[in-house]
Design a protein that fits this description.
Layout lengths: L7 H31 L4 H13 L4 E5 L4 H19 L4 E13 L8 E9 L2 H4 E6 L13 E6 H7 L6 E6 L6 E11 L17 E3 L3 E8 L3 H4 L7 E8 L1 H6 L3 H6 L3
Parallel strand pairs: 3-9, 5-7
Antiparallel strand pairs: 1-10, 2-3, 2-6, 2-10, 4-7, 6-7, 8-9
Helix pairs in contact: 1-2, 1-3
Length: about 260
């Protein structure tokens, strides 16, 4: 389910150069946060600075076109090791998603595509509230069984679907239909939070252009990609530094200078 474009090997090189670039950016963010804390010389001022930095969006997002389970795992390791070296163990949260938006609703046409973003999101239940049904579960078999999904409330409302409904999606690049069953409906928390960078639509649930509308993220168990039931075309990552942990790791001279 890959679009035409860069050859496979080239796409892998591009993907990992993007990931390495992100690691460099993480190092820069860590240095910026530490410098911001260092300019304050009073304990109260430093605490206030930490609070403001913690409330600010210091996260970093990255998107690559590679989406095989092996690549996803390799990217996860590269980012985790790089962020750990730059920020320190326990000083950041790493979130990832593997997804595909190359499936479409039966009502989709060439003039106006109705696409569905199927995504295996890490820690979804921590960042969304289940409105009805249950969270996606792993498939018991890789045969013709429909894939359990959870849809955003706004998508369920727009498409007039409820828990228990079944849909047959068409692959836009050719291939057998993808059958899904609506197992749950959810509502995002903190719609402007960095977590929703893991989706092409963010927390909005629906994104439109003049030629297409994309619904999602329609969440699946990440195992749907590793089992072969789905083929990923994109990976997205979000790295969220923990400002308090970074402050604790600031160089001793800076910490001494910041004391009253």
């Amino acid at each position: 389910m890959r679009r035409g474009g860069a050859p496979y090997i080239l796409s892998r090189i591009i993907a990992f150069r993007t990931v390495i670039g992100t690691v460099v950016s993480i190092t820069f963010i860590a240095a910026t946060v530490l410098c911001a804390l260092a300019v304050y010389e009073g304990g109260a001022l430093q605490s206030a600075a930490e609070a403001r930095l913690a409330a600010a969006d210091t996260s970093l997002g990255v998107e690559t076109s590679a989406g095989t389970p092996v690549q996803f795992a390799a990217q996860a390791t590269t980012l985790r090791d790089g962020a750990g070296a730059a920020l320190g163990a326990g000083s950041f949260t790493q979130l990832g998603a593997i997804s595909t938006d190359q499936v479409a609703l039966p009502t989709s046409t060439q003039a106006q595509q109705q696409l569905v973003e199927l995504a295996g999101l890490s820690a979804l239940s921590t960042h969304a509230t289940l409105v009805a049904g249950q969270w996606p579960r792993a498939l018991r078999s890789n045969g013709s069984s429909p894939i359990p999904v959870a849809v955003p409330l706004v998508v369920a409302t727009r498409l007039h679907i409820t828990v228990g409904a079944m849909l047959t999606l068409q692959q836009t690049a050719g291939g057998p239909p993808v059958k899904i069953t609506i197992g749950g409906i959810y509502q995002p928390r903190r719609a402007n939070g960095p977590y929703w960078r893991l989706s092409v639509n963010g927390a909005a649930g629906i994104g439109s252009t003049t030629a297409s509308t994309t619904y999602g993220p329609v969440a699946v168990d990440p195992a749907a990609f590793t089992s072969g039931a789905l083929t990923g075309t994109q990976t997205r990552w979000a790295i969220q530094p923990a400002v308090s942990a970074l402050a604790a790791r600031s160089p001793p001279p800076l910490r001494r200078r910041s004391r009253p």
